[in-house]
Amino acid sequence: MKKIIYYWAAYGLIELITYILLFQWIGFWPLLFIQIASTAFGIFIVKRLWRGITQNMRDRKAMSPYLLDTICLVFAGILLVIPGIITTICGLLLFLPFVRSWIKPLMNRWIERRMSQGNFTYFDMK
């Protein structure tokens, strides 16, 4: 628990320094516009993907070939909704296919490790 507090404090400090530097470089209004635009885009992406996921589940379509891509894109949308320049950059990077192709094997190994340890809950939607 103590590590999480240290990581969160470090993240907050890095975001604050980034905001100060960008504020000095581009000014208040462009920085505010960037944050509002990234939040709106993140909400749009999450809503659109959620609609697609629920529609596929209603139609009983298989989504497993695209599941890791969908998880990455939902996570990207969530990162865009969170205020901050670092989270916005990370969210935008997740939209790039080569970044997702680098992250998907890591996610797959994490899921396999969790399943082999028995720490993974699977819900069958039938």
From TrEMBL:
Keywords: Membrane, Transmembrane, Transmembrane helix. Pfam families: FxsA. The keyword Transmembrane applies. The chain crosses the membrane at residues 5-26, 32-50, 71-99. GO terms for cellular component: membrane. InterPro entries: FxsA. This is Exclusion suppressor FxsA. It comes from Listeria weihenstephanensis. The lineage of its organism: Bacteria, Bacillati, Bacillota, Bacilli, Bacillales.
